[in-house]
Amino acid sequence: xxxRLMVALAAVLVLSSPLVAQGIPTPRDHFGFDIGTxxxxxxxxxxxxxxxxxxxxxxxxxxxxxxxxxxxSPFVMLTITSPENHARLDxxxxxxxxxxxxxxxxxxAERQRLLxxxxxxxxxxxxxxxxxxxxxxxxxxxxxELAASDDPGILEILDxxxxxxIPSLNPDGLQWVAxxxxxxVGTDFEAAPLPWLYHFYTGHDNNRDWYAFTxxxxxxxxxxxxxxxxxxxxxxxxxxxxxxARLFVPPYIEPWEPNIDPALITAVSQLGxxxxxxxxxxxxxxxxxxxxxxxxxxxxxxMHYHGAARILSETASADxxxxxxVAASRLGPGRNxxxxxxSWNFPDPWPGGSWGLGDIVEYQKAAALALLTNxxxxxxxxxxxFLGVNRRAVEKWDAWPDAWVxxxxxxxxxxxxxxxxxxxxxxxxxxxxxxDFTMDGLDFxxxxxxxxxxxxxxxxxxxxxxxxxxxxxxxxPGGPPLRPYDVTAHTLGYLMxxxxxxxxxxxxxxxxxxxxxxxxxxxxxxxxxxxxxxxxALYKSWQEPMTAGWQRWMFDQHGLAYDTxxxxxxxxxRLNDYDVLVLQSQSARSILDGFRPGQLPExxxxxxxxxxxxxxxxxVQAGGRLVAIxxxxxxxxxxxxxxxxxxxxxxDREDFYIPGSILRVELEAGSTVTEGLDPEVAAWxxxxxxxxxxxxxxxxxVARYGAGxxxxxxxxxxxxxxxxxxxxxxxxxxxxxVVLFGFQPNYRGQTLGTWPLLFNSIRR
Length: 764
Description:
By secondary structure, the protein is an alpha/beta fold. The protein folds into 4 domains: 1-26, no CATH class; 35-393, Aminopeptidase; 402-503, no CATH class; 526-761, Class I glutamine amidotransferase (GATase) domain (Rossmann fold, 3-Layer(aba) Sandwich), CATH 3.40.50. Helix content is 33%, strand content 18%. The strands form 7 sheets. Strands 19, 20, 21, 22, 24, 25, 27, 28, 29 and 30 form a 10-stranded mixed beta sheet that branches. Strands 1-2-4-3-5-8-6-7 form an 8-stranded mixed beta sheet, with helices on both faces. A hairpin with a 2-residue loop joins strand 29 (726-733) and strand 30 (736-741). Helix 4 packs parallel to helix 8 (133-148) and helix 8 (133-148) crosses helix 13 (357-377). The longest helix is centred in the middle third of the chain and has 21 residues, at 357-377. The radius of gyration is 27 Å and the shape is globular. The relative contact order is 0.08. Mean pLDDT is 95; it is low at 1-21.
């Protein structure tokens, strides 16, 4: 009732507005408050109803529900452009798709017509990280202005640009965060962290899924926005920490992934710099560029391999919707800039002070409008640049092979099909050879998959199939390694355990029609199926790490029966109902202590503590099986009294650094963990991974990192320190057993090659 009264009052106050006379409600009309007001968050239900109103009342807005997000929320996209463009939207989309594939353009006259008549297509994605609340709120203000304003600058945008706006890439999480925040605003727990992942499976990792396509939200965006339209520009709106710049825009720092067209690199740099110039001219302080973020991994940048410039913007955060005070003394050095002083890429520092949701919304909207203004005024440039990128791909880069072949008859058919699924979902043209053939001196059987490299999205295929050699970058000459923003390897053949071969020469074998889409199935081992299958529990802390969420996704994806147990369940003795307990990578302190009193309401406070630890010890000694991965090994070693240590802790940090790479691991025979596998596998190694020091007769090594330097793909500084070091351990404790993984067997749902090790470890 109170909210209805607020809405009614707001409507009375703005009756004289000419926009209200047009029947288009302002955000204040609809929500009862101005978007950006401190401590006021609109939830997804209210936001979607607002977009539906805009769609009904504005001839500029079309609202589509593309499907359902993971937990069932509607996944929405707005198409915003002039009424004249809406009237010929199918024609404009056809123009865009012809520019995306120059092979469809029959003549110079047709090329000129397409460039004359086409529009810049801009995809704006918001709110993928649900606790970064500004973008999902700002989306309503931006949509309203585009839907209702008659400002000449807005009309110029509408005439020259087709805006595809996805106001939340994680609508489930947006609703959860808004509900949580609004429940506790004004209490001691205002802006307290959510006690569960804000994406059901992946948490913050949901923006690391842009080549693996594991999550529903990624698939909906790729299929209905990226591949349906192939935009020239994608603006991905985020937030970052509070103690640095107020806004980041490109240029990015080094490195750029080498399969990205140079004209896209320069396009990104000019557009980002334009945005920075516009905001600085408006008096917005603290804008930085050429800092913080690199452009290496395709896990965050699908569009760079599909002809589009990705503009990542990151605005400084508050405490969700609660304002904060940032003292000038807290502003200091960051990656490639210093927030306390001016520089060429940070010309007008922010001096510190109060910062709130209104500031975030204002900066984000100004950045989006600057981007759209550039897209409108430089329409011809964006279309010509887009066509040029795609034309060069069709003509084939010199550095690329003529084709990639994935030979038929490989042992791990699941890995092959998983890779083909990724390529075809990524709009790559994949065919099957209809006969045996020889190419580049190599023989391949009929049924082999062939990826010709004269096609628009060859760069996507090449980056995923080739081996990465990440550059050895330092903070300064002779100094410590320059930390990549994310990871350094993504070779599908290693991650998914199959072979792909680069070949040169003419493709003479008859090929099937293009495979439009492929899927894969992963067959669970026999011991995990049927009435004899073990009863499996997966630990789920109120501080659940993303690795545990990815583990739930993997189990659910393949139909493995399991239950999640919270701290209270284990403390109460529920482990007696299970045969196997899995602890994904989580620090010992987090497992033991959880949230401290005063951080969250009482029901979410605490971890396993001494009582839960005793229950786990009794569970193993009585015959249970415990599987622990990476950081969780520290907890298990302490609770069970195993003399096992992290060997990485003894390595010199200046000389040993593996930020996210693929390594060679050699398996020992004679263990059920390695049963049925080849003697060598490719394993994922990153910041929480480790080798082991073992001084306990109950513990045996079942896998070691490869002799010499085990690096297969990515970057390993001092990788030789891992040579022959234990990577997986197995131990007997009482009547039970323990399996300890030093590396991550289920990295972001991608490492099919090491899934069997994890499944083998889960048994009675």
